[in-house]
From TrEMBL:
Record-linked InterPro entries: Ion_trans_dom (IPR005821), NALCN (IPR028823)
Gene Ontology terms: biological process: positive regulation of synaptic transmission, cholinergic; positive regulation of synaptic transmission, GABAergic
A GO cellular component annotation in the UniProt record: plasma membrane
Organism: Desmophyllum pertusum
Protein name stated in the entry: Ion transport domain-containing protein
Lineage: Eukaryota, Metazoa, Cnidaria, Anthozoa, Hexacorallia
């Protein structure tokens, strides 16, 4: 058994689909810790209440020696069975047992000393438990699993940034971040963007690349950039997130985009004048050399 389990874990690490399923299960358990804890406490409370209310009830069709409230352990097993929806209404009807199908004599007038049930208690107990546990907590747990599954298991066809893209970005980051610190300088982060290939590839001469570089410089005021910072910049530029942002976040994002566009435009104009000045200086230098009688064959000016 241990060998089979170890073999399955080994295969799940190599196969993408199994790996996604394992990650989904692990992350769901971590994120649902408090839901599971509250669910266990709730079942313990209901099991103890069931022992008090129905611990002495006479066996019936569904309430028998295998499923009963004699002990708290038996009650827990029975409640777990109830969460699956198996014959919970029959168990409820058995707990509603009344005369003449049970023993209630003048010598035992107390409810706690008879083997009869109670209709009102059974209705409130089982219906409240089934609604709270099955319809609320179990559906919350399923919702967490579905959310994590949609997060981890995405393909190139149904998402703009897939797991393959994220893996490519991580591999490119690792090429630059050799010591695995998780942070890079602004210059190294720009190099990561320049080295990206595939669907996340950005032309180093495009306006989009200039915008991304400007945003990276503004992130930490020129200090080191983390892995998630660079990935966030890339995701903002690759995916339309306007619908998923709150109003305040959307306004902040629009203001940041306006600042970046303004700074990129100023830098572009400055670079254009700088290149124009260099070309003019180059032409004047060539003209000066020609007037001085210096041969230009095989000569290239270095400025």
């Amino acid at each position: 058994m241990v060998i089979i389990l170890f073999r399955f874990l080994t295969l799940s690490g190599k196969h993408d689909t199994l790996k996604m399923l394992m990650l989904t299960v692990v992350m769901s358990l971590l994120k649902s810790f408090f839901i599971i804890a509250v669910l266990i406490l709730l079942m313990i409370s209901y099991s103890l209440a069931g022992v008090i209310l129905f611990g002495t009830v006479k066996y019936g069709e569904a309430l028998n020696r295998h499923a009963n409230f004699k002990t708290s352990f038996n009650a827990m097993i029975l409640l777990f069975r109830t969460t699956t929806g198996e014959d919970w209404n029959k168990i409820m009807h058995d707990c509603m047992l009344s005369k003449p199908y049970c023993t209630e004599t003048p010598a035992t007038p107390n409810f706690w000393q008879t083997d009869c049930g109670n209709s009102a208690s059974a209705l409130i107990y089982f219906i409240s438990f089934y609604v709270i546990v099955t319809f609320v907590f179990l559906n919350l747990f399923i919702a967490v699993i579905i959310e994590n599954f949609s997060l981890f298991y995405s393909s190139d066809e149904d998402s703009l940034i897939s797991n393959t893209d994220l893996r490519d970005f991580q591999l490119t980051w690792n090429l630059v971040d050799k010591y695995r610190k998780g942070v890079l300088s602004v210059r190294q982060a720009k190099l990561v963007l320049r080295l990206l290939k595939g669907r996340l590839e950005v032309d180093s001469g495009s306006l989009l690349f200039k915008h991304m570089c400007c945003e990276i410089e503004k992130l930490r005021n020129g200090c080191d950039v983390s892995f998630h910072d660079a990935l966030g910049v890339l995701a903002y530029r690759s995916v339309d997130i306007s619908r998923s942002l709150q109003l305040e976040e959307l306004l902040e994002r629009e203001e940041l985009e306006y600042q970046i566009e303004e700074e990129v435009a100023i830098q572009t104009i400055r670079d254009w004048f700088t290149n124009l000045r260099k070309k003019r200086a180059e032409r004047e230098w060539i003209r000066h050399l020609e007037q001085g009688g210096i041969p230009l064959a095989g000569w290239c000016p270095v400025l």
